[in-house]
Each structure stands twice: as structure tokens, then as C-alpha cells.
Specification:
Number of domains: 1
Helix content: 25-40%
Number of strands: 3
Radius of gyration: 17 Å
Oligomer: single chain
Number of helices: 4
Structural class: alpha+beta
Shape: globular
Strand content: 15-25%
Largest sheet: 3 strands, antiparallel
Length: 128
């Protein structure tokens, strides 16, 4: 996103919320959280503070707003209320993010971060 987004540009991203209300109950019972199932599509679960720290690391982006969506297993009417008063406990977190004027690309930060997962940098596929 840092490569294609102009300074001041916005983008939205949604991630599974590891700290969702139902995941907290599952962990309390010793059950794997649904946001990071062993045989599921997500390899990481996030909590708001850590995801904001990650996105803003290096100064390429600034998180403008965070939204919560869905409170499993509650009905839609109750979901709307809970999303507003407890966004940090919703199933999913959505982030409105602004591209700062910093020159360069966020991908440069990933090598510093020392992830166990190699990321494709667009220049050298052999880095995978």
C-alpha cells in the first residue's frame, strides 16, 4: 500500500480480532480461538494496540479510526449496539489508515521486524 498510495491517501483493512469477546471465552475454556484456527485461513490474530503499533511502525502510515464489527453469537440488533460501545471486543477490527508523506515503502520495515514468515518484496522472489 505504501508503494501505490499517494501521501494523504486512505485505505481500509479488516483483520480478525484475537481479543473478541467470544475468543476470550474460548481461551478461558482452553479452546483454540476462532480467529486463528489451526486449519483456518488466518495465521495471525491481532489486538487493536498491537496492530496499530505494527501499521504505524516506521512512520509510513497513521491509523485514523478503528471500527469493530460483529459480536458472535448475538443477533444483529444487539450487534449494532455492542459494536459502538465495545469495538475492541468485536469479532473483526477495521482500520482506516492514512499514508503519511514519508518517502520509501513499508516493505523495508518488514526485514527489520524479523518475522518468521518471509514476505515477497516485489524485487527478488528468491528472498521467499
Amino acid at each position: 500500500m505504501s508503494r501505490v498510495l499517494k501521501p494523504g491517501g486512505l485505505f481500509l483493512v479488516g483483520v480478525p480480532n484475537l481479543a473478541s469477546l467470544h475468543n476470550r471465552f474460548l481461551l478461558l475454556l482452553g479452546i483454540q480461538p476462532t480467529s486463528i484456527r489451526i486449519l483456518g485461513p488466518h495465521i495471525r490474530g491481532f489486538v487493536r494496540g498491537s496492530f496499530v503499533e505494527f501499521v504505524e511502525y516506521g512512520g509510513y502510515f497513521k491509523v485514523i479510526r478503528v471500527y469493530g464489527a460483529n459480536f458472535y453469537p448475538f443477533p444483529p440488533a444487539l450487534n449494532k449496539i455492542l459494536e459502538k460501545i465495545l469495538p475492541g471486543m468485536a469479532v473483526s477490527s477495521f482500520y482506516e489508515i492514512n499514508r503519511t508523506g514519508k518517502i520509501g515503502n513499508f516493505i523495508e520495515v518488514l526485514d527489520e521486524y524479523k518475522f518468521e514468515t518471509r514476505y515477497f518484496d516485489g524485487k527478488n522472489p528468491s528472498k521467499l
